[in-house]
Amino acid sequence: MLIYAIKRLGVAFLVALAVSLVTFTLLRLSGDPAAAMAGEGATQEDIEYVRTHYGFDQPIPVQYYNWLTNAVRGDLGISIYLKTPVADVIFSRAPTTMTLGLCALTFALILAIPLGVLAAMYPNTMLDRVALTTAVIGQALPSFFFGLILIIIFGVWLRWLPISGHASWLNFIMPSIALGYYATPAIMRLTRAGMMDVLSSDYIRTARAKGLRPRTVLFKHALRNAVIPVVSLSAVQLGFMLGGSIVIETIFSLNGLGSLAWQSIQRSDFEIMQGIVLSIASFYIILTFLADMLNAFLDPRIRVH
Amino acid sequence: MSDQVLNVEKLYVDIPVSEGILHAVDGISLHVNRGETLCIVGESGCGKSLTSLAIMDLLPKKAVRKVNSLELCGESILECTEQEMSDIRGNRMGMIFQEPMTSLNPSFTVENQMVETLSRHRGVTGQEASNLAVQMLERVGIEPATQRLRQYPHQLSGGLRQRVMIAMTLLCNPELIIADEPTTALDVTIQAQILRLLRELQSDFKMGLMLITHDMGVVASVADRVAVMYAGQVVEEGPVLEIFDNPTHPYTRGLMRCIPIPGKIDRTKPLGTIPGMVPSLVGEFSRCRFDGRWESGASGSSVKTTSLAPLQGKNRSFSVDESPKHFVHFCCDDCLHKSGHQIGEDLAQ
Ligand SMILES: Nc1ncnc2c1ncn2[C@@H]1O[C@H](COP(=O)(O)OP(=O)(O)OP(=O)(O)O)[C@@H](O)[C@H]1O
Ligand SMILES: [Mg+2]
């Protein structure tokens, strides 16, 4: 188990390094940071001054090395637009996005897994079709549109939920649903397929031949094995959701990394964008690592050799 | 008749398939006595597994079971609810499957899977249950048992897993064990060990063993009685010696020709085969089930004939040579005539 964890950790570290290298290079190539920093009315000399002063004239590998060594120390540079340390801005915004992502994933799992299990228990029945339809609607609606529908129904008509800000947990309900619903069909289908597979397996027949109660057979013997692939998928889906948070945070005026990213793109605020990509990627990498660990815990074939 | 551990009368299993209804098991009657091994032999697809699953009430959902009577130790278990059946399964009757590699849950230790059976049926948990599990593992020849107990199925070889399955099935001391080709997936030396073990345990625990196989060699080494199945029916049934000495149904004779018996092999002739293929079981039979499966020249006078006495109330079923335990069944009059046997009295119908 320990060896497995160390291997996974090594992989996670390499992925983080690769992500940072790619984003750094892409951002540097996508525009001239010196021009952006100097502002609109700047002369050529001003731009050249900024370029040498901030080291943008140096080769990209050197810039990357400098940035990385600073980043490791927690220094992600200074925001060009906000003139404050990037790390501070990100730390103040990150909790909102992380909360949103985790709530959305929780919602998706709570909806998708029971639907998938039900659909697998009664395949090709009305119940199966209703479950599938419920899940597929989530994928058919773009999440911004679904978000707007939620706002109109629960925020404007019924006035049950606040439509903007992040003052209380109530603010997270609608955005989490809008974001999480999008991930339900994939998770539900995988749960259904996994569950159907497991339910027709020999060891389930053995469990029944031992006289175990139906709920023991279903929840202990079947679900345990059927969720193993769902865990990995959830981590991937969370990655999509973090990307989707740009739209959702903007619609619901949540001050998270998503809306910060949107603003920073408009302002060509390279340092911030760099920091956001890195922190979202790190969050994603950490969760993937945790998913791997959870799988190893669930599946002894991964853990024990 | 309480020395009968299992008694099944007129069991039918129908499965709806796209082309119609598949009569997988077609009116089988069987019984297993206490302390006895009944071997069921037959080709692949003749309905052996479905028969055993029907007895356990574990048929696939779409399969329909019809049975006149189903008794465990003299009590009918036909009217049992699912709840009552699950109290019986794993407790009074257990089943061992063909695939040791996939029959244990990969996510749980041997201990976990054995203890849960004990706690389900005996209410025994914790250390006490673990100790019982260890004893049973030792009983089926697993060493060192305490260490194996903590392992996961993927850490065990096929033979060991089948031993674990056997130990798990024996935990509650069942009256009947159904073993569906328990050794088919194992290599030959392990097969012999497992069969010897089953035989031994069966006499120690005084239980009834219903052993399904398609291997006449296995039958010869472990059976007390044999039921030969063909296309969903039992065509011949009797004590193992009578079946081997005096196979009466041409199909049984065909099976006998397919086994190499040491000392009796004529090396100038190829080992026998039964021509043709198993008929489709979908729909009603319009022709004989053995159409195309008669060996040329097998009919008529070339084979040893036996005198048959019709059984009361059973169509085309006969007792052989007045033995009280040896029966043969023909699916149609045509078959009966072709087999060339003499009928003791006038043909009933
Ligand atoms: N779930 C199912 N759906 C449709 N047909 C089935 C199903 N299970 C079994 N059958 C059919 O029923 C017949 C009997 O099957 P069964 O599994 O009892 O045979 P068997 O004698 O155990 O064969 P084998 O020696 O290969 O295990 C076969 O023709 C098989 O194709
Ligand atoms: Mg079978």
Question: Any overview of this molecule?
Answer:
- The complex is a heterodimer of chains A (305) and B (349).
- Chain A has helices at residues 2-29, 33-38, 44-54, 60-72, 86-121, 126-140, 143-157, 170-181, 184-199, 202-209, 214-251, 257-266, 270-298, 300-303.
- With 305 residues, chain A is an all-alpha fold.
- In chain A, helix 6 (126-140) packs antiparallel against helix 9 (184-199) and helix 8 crosses helix 11 (214-251).
- Chain A starts with a helix and ends with a helix.
- The model of chain A has no long low-confidence stretch (mean pLDDT 88).
- By secondary structure, chain B is an alpha/beta fold.
- Chain B folds into 2 domains: 4-228, P-loop containing nucleotide triphosphate hydrolases (Rossmann fold, 3-Layer(aba) Sandwich); 247-262 and 294-348, no CATH class.
- Chain B has 11 helices and 14 strands.
- In chain B, the strands form 2 sheets. Chain B has a 10-stranded mixed beta sheet with strand order 6-7-8-3-9-10-13-12-11-14, with helices on both faces.
- In chain B, helix 3 packs across helix 4 (126-139), helix 4 crosses helix 6 (158-170) and helix 6 (158-170) runs parallel beside helix 7 (188-205).
- The chains are: A mainly alpha (305), B alpha/beta (349).
- The interface between A and B is medium-sized, with 23 and 31 residues.
- Bound molecules: adenosine-5'-triphosphate (ATP) and magnesium ion.
- Adenosine-5'-triphosphate binds at residues 15, 17, 22, 24, 42, 44-50, 60, 214, 281 of chain B.
